[in-house]
Design a protein that fits this description.
single chain; alpha/beta; Rossmann fold; SIR2/SIRT2 'Small Domain'; 2 domains; 10 helices; elongated; binds ligand BV8; binds zinc ion
Length: about 240
């Protein structure tokens, strides 16, 4: 690590250690080192597909089997994935910070598997299913699913209980995320291209409300110039260095 990078890490560490409240927003990049492909990177999940082809209610209505094949493939990948040092560093921060809120756009539940006790899931979970007929919701971690598309015990077609494009975010999770972003001293934005709203707007909300904005990403993003510190590199290396006591 170069001298200026270690100075930036030291500065970020000092802001975090002196913070009363820290909030973190994570995206697909924090799970990349666990072997879960990101959406828009070179090996991105979207490479073979386009978001509007699969992660929308319209696509599901037209091709439920195709959409379920994609989710079943992702579920099988995620089931084999392990949390990485980036996920674990955030569980340490949750344990020792005066006040810490973890917000994620991810649906893989790797934060919870790493030991994070409280996670605001803005886009739902790939392990939850919801019936499109009776709206019952249940957890199903079977990989692969025995038959696609899965159905509810009422006979209705089941969908992944995730938030698709054009769908609103879970009200409770979103209002808690907005409150955490607008009241923290430090906002960490980790492994997200910051292209998907309203989640991406949390970083500028925090900054407007006076938080120090620290970005951790493998490359520059639309947020990098606005960030007080943009730490470039893998989250699985930077977060443990940043949060080392
Ligand atoms: C909504 C769940 C309205 C499913 C996903 C303004 C305001 C509000 C809405 C909009 C708006 N503008 C446009 C919209 C519409 C739309 C939107 O944002 N479109 C985009 C494409 C422009 N938003 C919506 O539709 C949202 N709904 O606003 O509803 C409404 C209101 C009332 C009533 C009705 C409707 C819903 C959006 C949610 C969509 N669902 N996922 C699933 O997972 O299958 S989005 C999907 O993208 C994932 O959740 C993912 O988390 C998210 C964001 O992507 P990233 O996580 O950032 O991943 P990405 O691959 O893009 O980037 C990875 C990053 O990691 C990169 O920067 C890379 O450099 C970095 N990286 C890689 N490796 C590493 C790394 N970093 C660190 N370490 C590494 N090792
Ligand atoms: Zn049902």
């Amino acid at each position: 690590m170069s001298r200026c990078e270690s100075e930036a890490i030291a500065q970020a560490r000092s802001w975090i250690n002196n913070a009363t409240a820290t909030t973190a927003l994570t995206g697909a990049g924090i799970s990349a080192e666990s072997g879960v492909p990101t959406f828009r990177g070179f090996a991105g999940l979207w490479k073979q597909f386009r978001p509007e082809d699969l992660a929308t209610p319209e696509a599901f209505a037209r091709h439920p089997e195709l959409v379920w094949e994609w989710y079943d493939w992702r579920r099988s990948l995620i089931a084999k994935a392990q949390p990485n040092p980036g996920h674990r560093a955030l569980t340490d921060l949750e344990r020792r910070a005066q006040s810490f809120t973890l917000i994620t756009q991810n649906v893989d539940r790797l934060h919870q598997r790493a030991g994070s006790q409280s996670v605001l899931e803005l886009h739902g979970s790939i392990w939850q299913l919801r019936c499109t007929a009776c709206h019952r919701e249940w957890s199903d971690e079977t990989v692969p699913l025995p038959h696609l598309p899965p159905t509810c015990r009422c006979g209705g077609l089941a969908r992944p209980a995730v938030v698709w494009f054009g769908e609103s975010l879970p009200r409770e999770a979103w209002s808690r995320a907005e409150r955490a972003a607008s009241t923290c001293d430090v906002f960490l934005v980790i492994g997200t291209s910051a292209l998907v709203y309203p989640a991406a707007g949390l970083a500028s909300l925090a900054h407007r409300c006076g938080a120090k904005l620290i970005e951790i990403n493998a490359e520059k993003t639309a947020l990098s110039n606005a960030a007080d510190l943009a730490l470039t590199g893998p989250a699985g290396e930077i977060l443990p260095a940043l949060l080392r006591e």
